[in-house]
Amino acid sequence: MFKKQVVxxxxxxxxxxxxxxxxxxxxxxxxxxxxxxxxxxxxxxxxLFFTSGRVFLTTGWQEIKDRKPGMMALIxxxxxxxxxxxxxxxxxxxxxxxxxxxxxxxxxxxxITIMLVGHWIEMSAVMNASNALxxxxxxxxxxxxxxxxxxxxxxxxxxxxxxxxxxVRPGSVIVIDGVVLSGLxxxxxxxxxxxxxxxxxxxxxxxxAGTVNSLDSDLKSGSLVIxxxxxxxxxxxxxxxxxxxxxxxxxxxxxxxxxxxxxWLFYVALxxxxxxxxxxxxxxxxxxNFILERVVTVLVIACPHALGLAxxxxxxxxxxxxxxxxxxxxxxQMFEQAAKLHFVLFDxxxxxxxxxxGVAGMQLAKNSKLKSEDKLMTLAASVEFDSEHSxxxxxxxxAESKQLKLAKAKNxxxxxxxxxxxQVGKSSVMVGSPALLLENSIRMEVAEVLWAEQxxxxxxxxxxxxxDGNLEGVLKVGDTIRASSAEAVYQLQAERIxxxxxxxxxxGVAESIAxxxxxxxxxxxxxxxxxxxxVKRLQxxxxxxxxxxxxxxxxxxxxxxxxSFAVGAGTNVAIESAGIVLISDDPAAVVRAVKLSxxxxxxxxxxxxxAAGYNILAIPLAAGVFMPLGLVLTPALGAVLMSLSxxxxxxxxxxxxx
Length: 658
Known about the structure:
The strands form four sheets. The chain has a seven-stranded mixed sheet, with helices on both faces. It has a six-stranded antiparallel sheet with strand order 2-1-3-9-4-7, with no helix packed on it. The longest helix has 36 residues. The protein is built from 25 helices and 22 strands. The model has no long low-confidence stretch (mean pLDDT 82). The chain is 51% helix and 18% strand. The chain is of the alpha+beta class. It starts with a helix and ends with a helix. The protein has three domains: 252 residues, no CATH class; 102 residues, Calcium-transporting ATPase, cytoplasmic transduction domain A; 126 residues, Calcium-transporting ATPase, cytoplasmic domain N, CATH 3.40.1110. The radius of gyration is 34 Å and the shape is elongated.
C-alpha cells in the first residue's frame, strides 16, 4: 500500500516542486508557462492532502482523540497547518490581496512524499525482519506424498497428521517435523541453524519443516521416509516464525523513549508556536504576514519524521540481522539489556557440551606399538562396528568425524558387562572396561593408571584397547565439549564479561569441563530452584546477569535472569522462559547477541540524538529567536533540513546491515 502511495505521491510532487514560486526563486529558473500554471502546485497539493496524506490525518486525529498525541499527531498537525496556510494564501492571491509571499504547497507535497517513503522503508524493513524465516513459507509445497494403504498418495499438507508416513524426494522441501524411518540423505538446515554444511540423515534422525533434502551426488540413496511428529503450526519452523512476529510486536525501552519524545514534541510545538505568536505581536516590529509565516514554519518543521524512523528502522533491521546470525529475539527489552551484561552463566550439559556421549580424549600406552591415535581409534571402531551399545556408537561417531577407514572385524563377540572383541586383520583386538585387563592379566603402566583415574573422577567412562594381549591405549567416553564453546567463553571475557558455569552435575565433572574452557567460577550440584537463587544472589550485587540453558531444570534460572538465552534444541519450557533463542545451539551466538546489542544501542541513541537535535535547533530558528544575529530559518530551508535529517537517520540505521 505504501509503495503504491509513494509512486503516486512522487508523480504529483515533482510538478508541484517544479512549478512552485518559492523553488523558482531559490534556484533561479523560469518554468514552462501555460494558462493557470502558477496554480498547479495548489491543485496538486490539494489532491495530495486528501489522498496520500489521508493516512496520516486519520491516525493523527485518533491519537488526539485518545489524548495520547505522538508521532502521527505531529505529522497531521504539520500537514493541516501547511495546507490551511497555503490554501488561504492562494485564495487571497486569487482575490488580489495576498497575505504572504511564500506558500507551503511544495513543502506539503515533499512532506507527504518523504513521510510515505520513510514509512515504506520502515514497513519493508519490518516485513523483511518478520519474514527472515517466514519468507521460506513461500517455497513450502502445498502437497505431500503420504502413505495410504500400500502406496503413496499426493495430498494437501494441511491433511497430514502426526504419525503419517511422508516420503521426501531429493531436491524437495520437508514440510513436517518428524523422524526418519528409512532412507539416507543430506539435508540443508541452514534456514534454521545458519550452518551451510549439509547434515546427513538416516534412520532415527530428526528432521524439520522448512529444511531441504539436498541433491547430493555422494549418496546413492536420496529419498527419505519420515514419520510425522508435528505438522502445520506445531512444527519448529512455524514456532520460530511466530517468535519473530512476537518480537516484532514488542517494544524496547528505547522505542518507548522515542514515542514519549514525540508526545512531548507535540506539546513543545504548540507552546513554541503560541510563544512565537505572542512575542512577535508584542514586539510590534513585524507585519502580520511575517508573524503568521513564523508560526506556521514552527508547526510545520516540528514534524519529527526522523524521530519516528530513529528506532523502528534500527529494530527492524536488527531482528532480520539477528535471525541470519542464528538468533531469535523474543523480548526486545532483554536484547537491549545484553549490551549491559556483567556476568554470563552457562548450563553445562547440552549447552557448553553436546549433551550426548562421545570420545572426549585418548592416550596411547607407554609401550604401544601403534604409531598414532588415529590407528588406535580405527582398531577400536572396527571391533565396535557391530555393537549396539551407546559407547560403541560414541566411538564410531568419533571415527566417522575423523573420516577413518574401518576394517571388517571377524569373530565378533560381546563380553557382557566388560566390552567386545574380534579379529581385525591378523590382530586380536579387545575393547572394554579396565576389568578386561584384570581378567586377562594385562599390565597397565602407572602413567595410564593415573590418566584413567583422573578421567573416571571427572565423570568419564574409561575404555581400554588391547591388541594381541598388550594394552595399546585408553579412551575416555562422556559428554563432549561443543567445538565453539572455548571461543565463546574467550570472546565474552574479551568483552569484559565474567563467565561462569551453573550446573546440576557433580563438582568434579563441572570443574573438569571448566578447566578446559578456562572458566574460573563454577556453581555445581545445583537443583533447579538453587539455580534461580544463585542468579538472584548475583543480581543483588547490582550486576546484569545472563543465563544460557536448554532444559526444564533451567527454566527457573532463565526466568530470573536479566537476559536469558535458550538453546534452540532444548525443551519448550526453556525456550518459553527465554528472551533470546539460539537457533543453532551454538554458544558463540551469545557473543554475537552481545555485540549486536551494543551496536544497536549505539545506533539507536545516535539516531535519537540526531532526530531530537534537529528539532531542538530548528524550532528556535523557525520562531526567529536568533533573528537579531541574522539567523532565521526560512520555510524552504526548514523543509530541506527536515528531509536531510530523515535521510541521515535512515542511512545510519542501514549501516547495521554490514
